[in-house]
């Protein structure tokens, strides 16, 4: 599903955030990405959805080499990759339903199918009853649920989550993780960058630790391995 070969990323300021990364992620895996602040986790994650372009090497996701992908093809790529951010990135003037539906409207799906799929997805994340609410009327956890619904409504094969519980209280974080677990059980590959030691050590999955732009650890059922 995801294959990185000899990936390097050096920014204009001379900082090398990816320094010879080699990673293979199978379809249906759940992978945590951990490491100290400034280690290169964000670059690793952003390269997967072409927010950042590698300086060297290949990144192949679902058969597409992101390193060679033309800029005008990036929106098409992102239709097949769900992305969840720490700060939600919802459109506050649109309702919960409209935020999720927007991801389908941009690819011109049929209105009847959009309604059916959006409501199914909101039910999955436990927010069907909040379909008409605005994001500003929701708690942080509910907003993140909407963001997750938006990321999966088009049934992507991969969901990339960048610190999805970073702004949430512990109880809400566990609720969000239960949703990710359910999505993964349905066959979606999950790649999640996180600083949450308790979650990584409790809900065990494969762990990749990045330090100084390199893969320091790659463990099938790993631990966080850093002080929280």
From TrEMBL:
Domain ABC transporter: from-to ranges: 2-228
SUPFAM superfamilies: P-loop containing nucleoside triphosphate hydrolases
GO biological process: cell division
UniProt entry keywords in alphabetical sequence: ATP-binding, Cell cycle, Cell division, Cell membrane, Membrane, Nucleotide-binding, Transport
Membrane topology: Peripheral membrane protein
Main location: membrane
CDD domains attached to this UniProt entry: ABC_FtsE
GO molecular function ontology, one term from the record: ATP hydrolysis activity
PROSITE patterns: ABC_TRANSPORTER_1 (PS00211), ABC_TRANSPORTER_2 (PS50893)
Annotated NCBIfam families: FtsE
Subunit structure: Homodimer. Forms a membrane-associated complex with FtsX.
Function: Part of the ABC transporter FtsEX involved in cellular division.
Protein's name in the database: Cell division ATP-binding protein FtsE
Native organism: Mesobacillus selenatarsenatis (strain DSM 18680 / JCM 14380 / FERM P-15431 / SF-1)
Originating gene: ftsE
